[in-house]
User: Fold DUF443 family protein from Floricoccus tropicus.
Amino acid sequence: MGSEVDKFVIQSVKRINTRYYLFELHGRYYIADYSNPKDLRQYIPGMFQELQDHTTVYDVTGHEEEYNAKPLRWYQKSRNQKLIYLIAVAYTFNAVAFPDKLNLAMLTYDPRIVANWKLIILLIVISSLFIIVYLYFKKTYVDLEGKDEYLLVPSTNIPIKASKFKRLFFYIIFLICISAMLFIGIGSSSYTQLILFGLIPIYTTIFTRFLNFVDINNTKYHIEKKEK
Assistant:
């Protein structure tokens, strides 16, 4: 029998598609309408308080096997995000401490990168828009009509409330930092640095909502009835 604490920790998370997740909480099964590609707020993480405060979920207890949900892949599990930080630290150490023959930055050096910086930025913008359009038109709808509707609300690690102006200010600062990292990657004329400091931060920022579910390792949650 699980502990009392386990009742407040999300368990058995599976993915139905880009938009929906199936999980167990409080001994019941729910489907979370978590990352709707047609909701443009999903592509601007951190800007909208309501997306952090709660998630709409549907009670499907007794019918959980009907939705063809699949286990999360390794990169969709929040604990594996730490692997990215480990890779960044290891790469930085390699770039600083190793000689040219063992230095990944030097081994992947190509002067054409900085010479074609405008083309690289254009390709990043076009590819991001292409992915957004693809997600927008991708069929993800699951019929949950008639299922009881609730809110999944964090009980711990509760998001800090901030005014729209303050959130916009910090988001602009964040974008400036991301842009600076991109130009560092381009200016280095190194493919590895372009990927690590440019492409990965940009794409994970835009599409983070579609890559990972809520923090299931460090946060406890409870269910609230959704007001009509």
Q: What stands out?
A: Strands lie at 11-15, 20-25, 28-33, 55-59, 70-71, 149-154, 221-225. The chain has one domain: 8-225.
